[in-house]
Structure to design on (1024 residues):
């Protein structure tokens, strides 16, 4: 189908996955209300499965979207968006699967949880596909507001509330930065349309370069907040640590991926003409994030907090792909986000599984001897950790290699070396968990007996683990898809500058 | 299907242990070691005919080249030549022996242990036959994990420290190598337009001297840590002392050879001008000589027998490095032979130490004494292994060290002269402890009641003794199989040494992307 966005019906088609998901979420909300009337404990998982079905329906709509082409609207209809959508839906599905047992254990199994989660995903999808700064902001807020609530969802836990407040305050700041940046960019160029922006900036019609630069700078700061790049990361550890763990997983995967997708679209495509300017800022952000986050992660005694810093560090790796800002970089970026989503969600899944009742066991000592008493769980965790470290036999290795390749193709040799050195630092703290699991004895022979890993969680972790391994042995399909999906992204730029930025 | 004429033998040797590892991990605990032994014996039996089917004149053989990740030019590329043949044979030969050596030593978590041991073999064989830089790197890295667990889970008191140190040292080296490999990959792509990780494609790259020097540094560091060359050797004593017997045997027997093999296969042929530069050669040969003398002295004062043997490894591989960088036929052949000799005599010592440990639960030299009276067979074996390590004529160590010194003398006579004193030092560090353990008065009553070697233990040691003597007395069959490959290597590297791409204008040299960026500015 060909969309030209002349009529509003075209928008309906272009937004089909988002619309499906929104309507479904409202349906789930209603179903939850009626179910509450029946007060049946047994039907509760049904809400979760219903939400999961909604994700699946959106995925189907997304598959259909692959047959659609369209240009000129406020919403992008391109491969990049479709690929990003799949990542976001995958992150959401994994988050729902790991939530099921968790909510029961923490006595907060309410239908609203899933509804908010679905709305957050709609926000993410809009964020990743917006072709207009205003729409981008709408998506961002839709996502953020839902996530603020979800972070504080565990009302009985003061740390959850603290996390929500911190996240909300700093998130509001970030939104303000973004909005102000958008305003300045609009003031300088007279448009908020991303394609028009690329053209205006590319052809050098810059009436107010200072205004534009300030706008770009503010946007960069806003995005850096959202993707948790150093030094704009300070909210991350507390918010990740205090939030219900499934939400932490979603924040580390979906939220971050969506913000990154928007960042890439805005900077690499629209501000492509200012590449030389912003690349310096992102270069430093990437370097600082990689080195800083990995160093701080070394000192963490809590596995959950360590994973929070690890997710900051990974933002640094992804930023390297952004700095490369070529077709290889964009493809590497998508591939990495996919691997990252699988391994991070999987790792948080294990953190959820390693719990007793409503007490999460997140300190390093709580993992002592896990490898011998819960071999499957520990092996899965080891796979995720090795993948996060970027070790061969895991998708994390291919992802890092892909980013390195993009960095070298863009002649960013120092950044590539920093990435490699940062990975070496990360070996240390990822391996420490492996050490504790396998090489420290458990306090008692039954320390880890009878851990409460629900069946859906097992499915989620299993899918993630298999996915991580498959992405090493047979990455071709995903690589092709990633490469194909970014093909359209840089067309506008190539037309403008008459050059290919990839090798 | 011509098994020995095609890649299948190599593919089998790589992946059969991996399949065995999966089986060993799944069978009941008490069967794991039997499964591992079966796998090891089959691996050896399959590998052994390679010695005869290998055609020295044919160069690289048993090749395969099929795409794996076609877009990136990553392929499943394997091959065997006179250099890798013996490394593969050594690996396969040691596998069943290590299983036997762990038979009663490892009591806990046997399934996991044997799975790791077999998985390790997969990585090691893969490193020796990979002809794709990506594949090589993958094997090089994954063998770290099983080794890490072998040391960290089944090791001694300070096992975790040793395991982490081993892992981080090696990973540090190999990550820089990865960057160097990627650089070469881009260089190749920029010149030919074709993305490939094939080893041969990298060989033909015209590189400027500066590039060669930097890339050589990246590769050489990884290999130097692995060998290990002084002063990168500090991880080795820890790893050896803490590792269980099987870990020490594999570490000394084959893992260290991956470093020397890396120099021969990759660092020298890829960057001939930088590697055979006068300064580079002098640096490496000097480090080798320092390593030989220094570690010999350090070894002499070790109260712990296992640590002593660990230091002797550094000294021996110093000889190998000396031979490699002498870069003539005798030198390299000597180095290769030394890798084999060391791969037989040092594992034998580690096996014996493991057997002594099983009896007395100590590696301290002072805890032993007068074993000749109480356990004559074990003592005889220990004396033989020690003499083989020193390099007594008639053992494999003598021939190889002699060849190395012969080769080194032709290029750097003074260094060779100093290195030759290492042979004397070897006697100095090996004989006094041997005397203390075997011949002194039997003054501890614990040493009187220990049993002598049983049949299983003899089964481990006798093949080692036989091979050590065979190579020591009649090394010709081995040397004959190496020679064409070594000559070809020398020929190729000497040829490549003269061909250095002229330093070009910087802008033209950069990848097209960067150049395009500059245009825009």
């Amino acid at each position: 189908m060909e969309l030209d966005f002349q009529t509003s019906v075209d928008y309906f088609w272009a937004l089909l996955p988002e619309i499906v998901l929104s309507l479904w979420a409202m349906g789930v909300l209603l179903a939850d209300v009626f179910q509450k009337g029946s007060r049946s404990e047994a039907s509760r998982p049904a809400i979760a499965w219903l939400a999961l079905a909604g994700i699946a329906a959106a995925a189907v709509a997304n598959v259909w979207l692959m047959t659609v082409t369209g240009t000129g609207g406020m919403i992008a209809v391109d491969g990049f968006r479709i690929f990003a959508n799949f990542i976001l839906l995958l992150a959401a599905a994994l988050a729902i699967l790991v939530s099921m047992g968790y909510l029961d254990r923490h006595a907060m199994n309410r239908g609203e949880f899933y509804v908010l989660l679905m709305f957050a995903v709609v926000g993410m999808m809009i964020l990743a596909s917006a072709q207009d700064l205003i729409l981008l902001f709408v998506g961002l807020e839709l996502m953020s507001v839902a996530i603020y609530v979800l972070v504080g969802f565990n009302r009985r836990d003061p740390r959850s509330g603290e996390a929500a407040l911190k996240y909300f305050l700093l998130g509001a700041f970030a939104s303000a930065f973004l909005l102000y940046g958008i305003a300045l960019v609009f003031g300088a160029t007279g448009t908020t349309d991303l394609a028009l922006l690329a053209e205006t900036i590319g052809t050098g019609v810059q009436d107010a370069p200072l205004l534009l630069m300030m706008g770009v700078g503010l946007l960069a700061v806003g995005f850096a907040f959202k993707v948790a790049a150093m030094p704009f990361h300070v909210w991350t550890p507390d918010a990740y640590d205090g939030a219900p763990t499934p939400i932490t997983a979603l924040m580390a995967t979906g939220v971050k991926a969506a913000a990154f997708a928007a960042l890439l679209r805005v900077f690499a495509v629209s501000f492509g003409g200012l590449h030389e300017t912003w690349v310096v800022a992102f270069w430093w952000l990437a370097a600082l994030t990689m080195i800083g986050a990995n160093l701080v992660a070394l000192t963490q005694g809590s596995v959950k907090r360590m994973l929070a810093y690890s997710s900051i560090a990974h933002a640094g790796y992804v930023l390297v792909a952004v700095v490369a800002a070529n077709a290889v970089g964009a493809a590497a970026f998508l591939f990495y986000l996919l691997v990252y989503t699988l391994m991070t969600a999987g790792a948080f899944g294990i953190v959820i599984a390693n719990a007793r009742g409503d007490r999460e066991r997140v300190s390093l000592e709580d993992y002592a001897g896990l490898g011998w008493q819960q071999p499957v769980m520990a092996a899965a965790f080891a796979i995720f950790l090795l993948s996060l470290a970027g070790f061969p036999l895991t998708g994390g290795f291919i992802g890092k290699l892909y980013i390195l390749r993009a960095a070298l193709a863009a002649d960013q040799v120092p950044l590539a070396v920093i990435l490699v050195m940062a990975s070496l630092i990360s070996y240390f703290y990822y391996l420490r968990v492996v050490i504790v699991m396998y090489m420290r004895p458990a306090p008692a022979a039954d320390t880890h007996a009878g851990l409460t890993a629900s069946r859906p969680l097992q499915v989620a972790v299993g899918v993630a683990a298999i996915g991580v391994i498959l992405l090493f042995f047979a990455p071709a399909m995903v690589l092709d898809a990633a490469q194909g999906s970014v093909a359209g992204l840089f067309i506008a730029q190539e037309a403008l500058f008459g050059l290919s930025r990839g090798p | 299907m011509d098994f020995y004429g095609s890649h299948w033998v190599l593919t089998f040797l790589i992946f059969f242990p991996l399949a065995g590892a999966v089986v060993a991990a799944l069978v009941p605990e008490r069967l794991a070691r039997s499964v591992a032994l079966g796998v090891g014996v089959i691996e050896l039996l399959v590998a052994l005919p390679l010695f005869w089917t290998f055609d020295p004149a044919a160069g690289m053989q048993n090749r395969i080249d099929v795409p794996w990740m076609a877009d990136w030019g990553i392929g499943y590329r394997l091959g065997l030549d006179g250099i890798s043949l013996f490394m593969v044979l050594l690996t396969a030969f040691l596998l069943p022996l290590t299983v036997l050596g762990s038979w009663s030593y490892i009591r806990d978590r046997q399934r996991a242990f044997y799975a790791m041991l077999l998985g390790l073999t997969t990585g090691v064989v893969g490193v020796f036959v990979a002809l794709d830089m990506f594949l090589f790197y993958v094997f090089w890295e994954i063998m770290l994990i099983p080794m890490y667990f072998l040391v960290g889970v089944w090791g001694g008191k300070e096992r975790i420290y040793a395991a982490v140190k081993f892992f981080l040292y090696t990973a540090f080296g190999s990550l820089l190598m990865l960057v160097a490999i990627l650089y070469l990959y881009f260089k190749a792509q920029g010149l030919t337009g074709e993305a490939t990780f094939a080893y041969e494609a990298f060989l033909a790259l015209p590189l400027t001297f500066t590039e060669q020097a930097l890339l050589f540094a990246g590769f050489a560091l990884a290999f130097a840590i692995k060998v290990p060359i002084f002063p990168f050797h500090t991880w080795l004593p820890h790893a050896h002392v803490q590792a269980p017997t099987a870990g020490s045997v594999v570490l000394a027997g084959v893992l260290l050879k991956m470093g020397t093999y890396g120099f021969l296969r990759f660092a020298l042929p890829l960057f001939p001008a930088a590697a055979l530069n006068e300064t580079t050669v002098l640096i490496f040969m000097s480090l080798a000589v320092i390593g030989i003398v220094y570690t010999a002295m350090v070894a002499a004062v070790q109260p712990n027998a296992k640590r002593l043997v660990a230091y002797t490894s550094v000294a021996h591989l110093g000889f190998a490095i000396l031979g490699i960088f002498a870069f003539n036929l005798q030198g390299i052949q000597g180095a290769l032979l030394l890798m084999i000799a060391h791969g037989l005599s040092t594992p034998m010592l580690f096996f014996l130490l493991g057997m002594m440990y099983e009896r007395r639960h100590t590696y301290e030299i002072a805890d032993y004494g007068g074993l000749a009276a109480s356990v004559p067979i074990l003592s005889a074996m220990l004396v033989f292994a020690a003499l083989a390590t020193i390099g007594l004529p008639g053992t494999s160590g003598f021939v190889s060290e002699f060849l190395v010194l012969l080769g080194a003398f032709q290029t750097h006579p003074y260094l060779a002269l100093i290195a030759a004193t290492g042979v004397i030092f070897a006697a100095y560090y090996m004989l006094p402890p041997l005397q203390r353990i075997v011949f002194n008065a039997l003054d501890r009553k614990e040493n009187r009641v220990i049993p002598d070697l049983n049949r299983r233990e003899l089964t481990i040691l006798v093949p080692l003794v036989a091979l050590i003597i065979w190579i020591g007395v009649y090394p010709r069959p081995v040397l004959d199989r190496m020679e064409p490959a070594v000559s070809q290597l020398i020929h190729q590297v000497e040829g490549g040494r003269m061909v250095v791409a002229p330093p070009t204008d910087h802008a033209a040299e950069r990848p097209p992307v960067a150049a395009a960026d500059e245009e825009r500015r």
Notes: The longest strand of chain B covers residues 61-69. Confidence is low (pLDDT under 50) at residues 505-521 of chain B.
